[in-house]
Write a structure and sequence with these properties.
The protein has 13 helices and twelve strands. By secondary structure, the chain is of the alpha/beta class.
Length: 400
């Protein structure tokens, strides 16, 4: 009898974490490494949020809380959804977890049965398919190439839906591409979903506030109120407020689903950190200047990186609408050999040779379900980004 669960054979460790760890090991060994693999703002958490956490500690708010969030945080989340998204929820329709990942996982664990299908546009965040597999479902990736702006079309969604489809996972702006859906593009998708009442929508809005130029963020239940009763609107404080390590994610949806997710959480982690919840209340209710200021920095970095990467031979880098990622295609680099002697057979070969020969760590496209490409996180300094892109240009120029 094998000791480990058969379920584990269906999933793999996170490639982004693996590459980040490898880059860290090389740096500790003395290599000059520029890591562009982690999806994490490089800014510190705003001071007002840190101060709120300190006050909570001093006030002794260090005990267990309600399993799926304090009343104060749920109230702040309801106010946020009403104020920013035009969505009205009660506290009973809100759940809080230890990061956005746990929220998604709880929902899948609470709803999926063997044979249930989950539609996932590709490129996708690396964890979506594996969480579906862990929950016993079947991921159904749908490739969305650069030619369509890395966005799913209504015809593709229609073709992917079967009687077994339970969820459609939607992420805009996207990790890994930064692609954002306009209101009209999203309305085309919601029109399809209205025709299939057995399909639920799980929308990951984690990058909601990181949008550029004149792009307007919208979420599915906002665009199509007819989907309100079968949409789980997920978000968190990690990216918008530089609070990745605080681990607070949240979602709102039908009360029966929220109760089921709470049951899963009650038998796994129980409540999120009490201090982090107090900090999240301040993040949502307090001054929002930080979001405006950080968004301006990220837009400048996007423009810098897109321009430099498009100057590299064999790379084509679309300009994303949001998040802090770019997802350049490298079809013209495949089949060539690097200056260090590595044959580039696929995008994983490209990323490996790039790290070993130049010290730049990126995540290869196959990890996100669409090749040949790679993802760069530009959540680091202009100087680091400029040097990294210079090294990528040199590496690409050396491919023969």
């Amino acid at each position: 009898m094998p000791f480990l669960s058969d379920t584990l054979s269906r999933v793999k460790p996170s490639p982004t974490i693996a590459i980040t760890n490898k880059a860290r090991e090389l740096a500790e060994a003395g290599r000059d490494i520029i890591a562009l693999s982690a999806g994490e703002p490089d800014f510190d958490t705003p001071q007002n949020i840190k101060d709120a956490a300190k006050r909570a500690i001093d006030a002794g708010k260090t005990k267990y809380t309600a399993v799926d969030g304090t009343p104060a945080l749920k109230k702040a989340i309801c106010a946020k959804f009403s104020r920013e998204n035009g969505l009205d929820y009660t506290p009973a329709q809100v759940t809080v977890g230890t990061g956005g990942k746990q929220i998604l996982y709880n929902a899948l664990m609470a709803t999926l049965n063997p044979g249930d299908e989950v539609i996932i546009p590709a490129p996708y965040w690396v964890s979506y398919p594996d969480m579906v597999l862990l929950a016993g479902g079947t991921p159904v990736p749908v490739e969305c190439p650069a030619q369509t702006g890395y966005k799913l079309t209504a015809d593709q969604l229609e073709a992917a839906i079967t009687p077994k489809t339970k969820w459609f996972i939607f992420n805009s702006p996207s990790n890994p591409t930064g692609a954002g859906y306009t209101r009209d593009e999203l309305k085309a998708l919601t029109d399809v979903l209205l025709r299939h009442p057995h399909v639920w929508v799980m929308t990951d809005d984690m990058y909601e506030h990181l949008v550029f130029d004149d792009f307007e963020f919208v979420t599915p239940a906002q665009v199509e109120p007819g989907l309100y009763d079968r949409t789980l609107t997920c978000n968190g404080v990690s990216k918008a407020y530089a609070m990745t390590g605080w681990r607070i994610g949240y979602a709102a949806g039908p009360e029966a689903l929220i109760k089921a997710m709470g049951k899963v959480q009650s038998q796994s982690t129980s409540n999120p950190c009490s201090i982090s919840q107090e900090a999240a209340v301040e993040a949502l209710n307090g001054p929002q200047d930080y979001i405006r200021d950080s968004r301006a920095v990220f837009q400048r970095r996007r423009d810098l990186v897109v321009g430099l990467l498009n100057a590299a031979p064999g790379i084509r880098c679309p300009e994303p609408e949001g998040a802090f990622y770019v997802y350049p295609t490298i079809a013209d680099c495949i089949g060539k050999t690097s200056a260090g002697g590595t044959r580039i057979g696929n995008d994983e070969d490209f990323a490996t040779a790039l790290l070993e020969e130049t010290g730049v760590a990126v995540v290869f496209g196959a990890a996100f379900g669409l090749s040949p490409a790679f993802r760069i996180s530009y959540a680091t300094s202009d100087a680091q980004l400029t040097e990294a892109c210079r090294r990528i240009q040199t590496f690409c120029a050396g491919l023969k």
